[in-house]
Amino acid sequence: MGAVREGVPGGRYGRSADERADRGLKIVGAVLGAGLLAMVGWFGYDYVGGQRISAELIKWDVTADDRVQVHLEVRKDKDARGYCTLRSRAEDGSEVGRRDVRFDGPESRVDQVVTVRTTARATSAELAGCTADSGPNG
After folding, report:
1. Cα(109)–Cα(113) distance, integer angstroms
2. Which of 19, 55, 68, 97 is the most exposed place for a label (fewest CB within 10 A)?
3. What are phi and psi of 60, to 5 degrees?
4. Which strand (E) or helix (H) includes residue 54?
């Protein structure tokens, strides 16, 4: 009795349709993966490079029922102009104070303590965000 062979002898008739499809899928996957990687890299570079003003809230202290002192550290391009928004919240989470602090000077690092006036006793302070001015000077 002879052995039963399934399929065709290897190398005699070229690649099978499955092998061609596998190779095509590998190429498409590699191209799509490289494109996705390039897109993520571009968005990351644009996000980091596009931020001309960034800040960090170092500490805050409720100094009275109607005010909070906030220590803010700002990093920016020397020619950048803009502002950072601070807000203060009450114990129930409602906003009781808000202040925009402008940074127009030539310094690239600003360390500043500002007072946020509140309508009720605050229990927290937070940095809502920073925005650079747009236009020829900002």
Report:
1. 13
2. 19
3. -145, 155
4. strand 53-64
**Token pair of 62 as six digits:** 């409720």
Around Cβ 60, how many Cβ atoms within 10 Å? 20
Give me the sign of the Cα torsion angle 110, 49, 135, 57. negative
- Bridging pattern class, strands 109-117 and 95-103: unpaired
- Report mean pLDDT in 10-residue bins for the chain, 138 residues: 62 68 86 91 72 87 94 89 94 95 90 94 93 65
Q: Which two tokens stand for residue 127?
A: 């940095």
CA distance 54 to 129: 8
Q: What is the mean pLDDT of the chain?
A: 85
For residue 135, which phi and psi values (nearest 5 degrees)?
120, -175
